[in-house]
Amino acid sequence: MTQPAATAPSAPPPPPPEAxxxxxxxxxxxxxxxxxxxxxxxxxxxxxxDLARSTVDRVLSTLARLGYVRIEGRDAVLAxxxxxxxxxxxxxxxxxxxxxxxxxxxxxxxxxxxxxxxPDGDGVRFVHQATRxxxxxxxxxxxxxxxxxxxxxxxxxADHWDAADWQRWRSRRATDPTDAGFPAVPPRRAEDGTDxxxxxxxxxxxxxxxxxxxxxxxxxxxxxxDQLIEPGLVAVAMPVRDTTGRPVCALSVVSHxxxxxxxxxxDAVLPRLRETVxxxxxxxxxxxxAAAAPDTTPGPSHPAHATWMRAxxxxxxxxxxxxxxxxxxxxxxxxxxxxxxPLTAVAEATGLARATARRALITLEHLGxxxxxxxxxxxxxxxxxxxxxHLSGLTLPAIxxxxxxxxxxxxxxxxxxxxxxxxxxxxxxRVPTVRIMSVNITLGxxxxxxPTSMGRVLLxxxxxxxxxxxxxxxxxxxxxxxxxxxxxxxxxxxxxxxSHDYALVDEELEEGLRSLxxxxxxxxxxxxxxxxxxxxxxxxxxxxxxxxxxxxxRTAAAAIEADLWVAGxxxxxPVL
Length: 576
Hints:
Blueprint (H helix, E strand, L loop, with lengths): L20 H15 L3 E3 H8 L3 H14 L2 E4 L2 E4 L4 H11 L1 H16 L2 E8 L2 E8 L14 E3 L4 H7 L4 H13 L12 E2 L4 E2 L5 H4 L2 H14 L2 E4 L6 E9 L5 E10 L8 H21 L19 H12 L5 H9 L10 E2 H8 L3 H13 L3 E3 L3 E4 L8 H5 L3 H16 L2 E8 L2 E8 L14 E3 L4 H8 L3 H9 L14 H14 L2 E4 L6 E9 L5 E10 L5 H26 L9
Antiparallel strand pairs: 1-3, 2-3, 4-5, 4-11, 5-6, 7-8, 9-10, 10-11, 12-14, 13-14, 15-16, 15-20, 16-17, 18-19, 19-20
Helix pairs in contact: 1-3, 1-12, 5-10, 6-9, 12-14, 13-14, 16-20, 17-19
């Protein structure tokens, strides 16, 4: 079928009279930050958003109060707390919760990367990734947006486009021939519209080639990506349909031509891909009570909105824009079991006045972050453009670093984070302080776990059987005259650490070195790392060190855990 020819794109519709201007401005700032890797000088944000400097300053001040942005010197930086907006969208869709475990199982069985993607306008956005770690592997993140024509899922979704959808796609191709609006993929060459280095994928991604692929996918029931994104990357995708027959997402298996060619991949993966799609469609047909239980792990939440808003306004004055904060918090009303909500339910969930919630919903719908049938509102995948891809790719050390900086500023001693590696600890983050006598340790440094404060916190977090097995293989050598080397005494000390939730080690690793550590736990309550402060033993007594350092350490660990709780809802957070 011949599709309509492209015409010049029409201007975006003007905002409705009820639209909240400050909310629109805050979202434009978040989009710019997300588009540039999550960090930008404030001056650049002023130029790129075409907003006044005073307006950008007020926007950033409000976003910082919400915990969505940090100000570091002259730069604005996206903060992990912002992920709660994308988390609400993903939870409302139920796709990662219901289908993610099945995708993970398929990735394990095939030993290939597997993804779930949903349609987003004339693009495709990832909502779940199960990747294989290889020298050449899939690098897309949850929330990344790809052009529909450059990938296997897009041909499946485009089969359901109407004439207006095809027109918008052609207009976008004409106005953005290099795919500059899709930073997750390598750019095309503007002169011919093909990829910079793509071979067989170039023609298939052209308008005529894409239409042919859509027709082929319709006939076959699956779609092939033969290096459409970049050379060497191949994929097969199938649609996953709901009970009405509508494709709600696409399941893709991604490989590399060094493992399987585009001709070999379908035969290798289609049987298991079809089985998994059937299992996913059955999972979608189940009522919520019979489906996998939604995540109910306790975690951070905004305080009572009305009280918090008043306190923020009193503290920050004109630098806190209430209408902006209220509008953003509106998105958090959605979630598991709350995929679609009427105005009244949104107002009740957020504690906002009905009129205030209505204006925020109208604004978010106008910007494409919500869809509505006139009565019920639901979040769209576009919410994920608000920094989700960048933030979901953070490592644990990156999450911890700003909190370690704040800790050092408070206690004026060096702070570090370490993880357990065998019978040693490995330093993964560190913020030194400047003193005449300071503790000099570099990232990657390893020490035995048993005579260090962070090692004892990490050992105490192990199950008893695993702890006993590790200590049995550890050479408890005396490193100083204070080092505890008796296994029974060490076990008793570790039990105290487990009971008190901190460890203080005095001159056991090195003469004159005293350190205090607390654990950092993930969403499941498992100890994944430790944070410590190291100081010279001559600066204060043991009791003084405990009194001065422990509250600050626990505050820092709690802040890291809060960010880790939000960041780890749908993404795997590497510890290195």
